[in-house]
Amino acid sequence: MLLAIEQGNTNTLFAVHDGESWIAQWRSATESTRTADEYAVWLSQLLEMRGLGLGSLTACIISSVVPQSIFNLRNLSRRYLHVEPLIIGENAELGVEVRIDKPSEAGADRLVNAIGAHIAYPGPLIVIDSGTATTFDVVGADGGFEGGIIAPGINLSMQALHEAAAKLPRIAIQRPERNRVVGTDTVSAMQSGVFWGYISLIDGLIERIKAERGEHLTVVATGGVVSLFEGATRQIDHFDPDLTIRGMLEIHRRNRRLAQ
């Protein structure tokens, strides 16, 4: 069985694939100081609830945008799974061309998403991932990574608004009632600004990318927050919550074939 670990700046996903399907997924808050032993205790308890154990896991792949965490995640795999993990950006062959000025600067999460989207959707693509940052990445028809845009994430923007303005409260992200744009109190005004502001950000940037590229691009969105925008944006063609782990599974399979 494969353990896939996808670590973002805010959350870390642990998912188990049995060779045919994903049989378990868990999320935890990303903590860069968490040790391999702490991960093992937490993970073993969750596995036990599914009738599994650490000994059931025979392979591991890691994608992390938190460099200081990779040491402990690697030790988790070595010490408790007894396997050398595949790490995106280190020892994992991706099988795609990275066509940007400095390929080493492409984030592991963006490359994994590009692969996950390419194997599921035909033609050139725009891949949106809404997390701590909101990224818009262009994927060529052949799967090549061709660059993109990085903007602040919606939660980051809300946090900055609350912390910088003494009278503005911390609010939850939600679609304004009856799709109203103009708020009638502070909370509804903030919710409208955040929600419709990000809809305009998404639609506006996609329109500009398409105009610059001069070609039809299918737009695929993933990430924990992006589902809130379903039905509100006119530019996103597909909402795909499994994009990242699909890409990690494909990278694992490509590297396994290369090793044979």
From TrEMBL:
Keyword Disulfide bond: no
Keywords: ATP-binding, Coenzyme A biosynthesis, Cytoplasm, Kinase, Metal-binding, Nucleotide-binding, Potassium, Transferase
Gene Ontology molecular functions: ATP binding; metal ion binding; pantothenate kinase activity
Pathway the protein acts in: Cofactor biosynthesis; coenzyme A biosynthesis; CoA from (R)-pantothenate: step 1/5
Binding-site list for ATP: 6-13, 132
Active site: 109
Catalytic reaction equation(s): (R)-pantothenate + ATP = (R)-4'-phosphopantothenate + ADP + H(+)
Highest rank taxon of the organism: Bacteria
Xref: Pfam families: Pan_kinase
Binding site residues for K(+): 129
EC number: 2.7.1.33
Binding site for substrate: 107-110, 186
GO BP annotations listed: coenzyme A biosynthetic process
Described function: Catalyzes the phosphorylation of pantothenate (Pan), the first step in CoA biosynthesis.
Similarity-based family: Belongs to the type III pantothenate kinase family.
Single GO cellular component term: cytoplasm
Cofactor mode of binding and number, as noted: A monovalent cation. Ammonium or potassium.
NCBIfam families for the chain: baf, PRK13318.1-2, PRK13318.1-6, PRK13321.1
Protein name per the record: Type III pantothenate kinase
